[in-house]
User: Fold this.
Amino acid sequence: MKNPFVIFTILFVMQAGYLFSFSQEGVASWYGGKFHGRKTANGEIYDMNEVTAAHKSLPFGTIVNVQNLDNGKTVKVRINDRGPFIKDRIIDLSKKAAEAIGMMHSGTANVRITVDDPNITTAVLEREKSEFMTIQVAAYKNPLNAKRMKEKIVQINLQPVAVLTQEGVIRIEVRSVHKNDVENALAKLESIGIGSTVVKQQF
Assistant:
């Protein structure tokens, strides 16, 4: 055996290909207030005093290491919700998690999030992503009309977001709807006169 170290490396790479290892850097934010006591995307009741977080695609139950790159503080959080829905933000922390890494005052922080879990495969990640849908409700040029529509949707216990497109149009969407809950969400929207919608897979 001329070079056992090379052979060992190849074997390791082949085996590690079946595991899920994840690293991402970007901006973290935190949420509480009006969301406290509401259902999260996985059906739990959100408690801002628990150490949890929302991520766009990581499987529910994943334990994520979050490091504040501005001060070096770290916290472990459990993913139980979907979000954030603001461009360039990669994770929404609970109030308690945000306090743990010293970002309450600033509201946001530059973070690195990492996961190294042998129980999660990339196939699991893809499946989780495919289980959630976005319902596009309407689009407006007038911000006041968009605001009124958001308020109507909140009244039926859905959580709308406003997306400003490059064309200056404000699109109202209901995101992170589990595929099994789409019909119920559409029925709620129809009850307030919204019958024309577009349902698309969330990425």
